[in-house]
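ERR on first pass: missing label on line 2. Operator R.T. fixed the label and resubmitted. Corrected input:
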Amino acid sequence: MSTSSAIDEIEEGLAFRPKFDAAGLLTCVATDATSSEVLMVAHMNDEALHKTIATGEAWYFSRSRGRLWRKGESSGHVQRVVEMRIDCDQDAVWIRVDQQGGAACHTGRRSCFYRAVVASADGVPTLAFVDAGRVFDPALVYGKPG
Amino acid sequence: MSTSSAIDEIEEGLAFRPKFDAAGLLTCVATDATSSEVLMVAHMNDEALHKTIATGEAWYFSRSRGRLWRKGESSGHVQRVVEMRIDCDQDAVWIRVDQQGGAACHTGRRSCFYRAVVASADGVPTLAFVDAGRVFDPALVYGKPG
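pass 2 clean. output:
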């Protein structure tokens, strides 16, 4: 069923062989275990991935801050992992989480995906707010703007 | 609500300003519009993103093959986009799709995420098949193994 035994082992085997990119990261999609909504997309390095598996709470690697990051470390809005899955070529993981505090986004919204991309009358893509209500006020939670 | 007007505009504005990484890509998560299941994670360059918006069918950029790729071009299993959303910092998109043929994965499975990551008795992560039944035989659809 595969072009080589190496691919076969990655795609059809039971060995956990996460494939990190040149920056040492893989992509993680977090969805709400109850609503199935996509909450956020972030990255994990090897340490974040193994801490997530070991602790049952989501850890990420922040590309902008260049450091490991336990989701909710500032806000208290941790993500408890209900299930982790890995994709066919083992370069992305999907976690279904119980989102503490009800909001994953630092802007205070349930999901980071609070805007739809729509084509305007002249065909130029523009954005439209959807599900954009805030669950919390980021100024209160983070003690600073934004 | 933000640390600067630039961030505010990206996070709270209605202008579509996709932020590509150093390789010119952003991450795309595709979910099934009916079941909400995560089907796949892939990448889009500027051209793939704009073709997706213009045609209403998913286009990606294949990192392994180094080329633009219309999902379903070999298999016929195209993805019709029901809605596209973009995240707070505009470096990831989420598309809800009608998956033609019922399977997104090149292995013939509905989703690329057909294995769960589980901790074995000794704490070492291993994989377990879940939802691993094949919708199609890849050898028949692609005319080659795998």
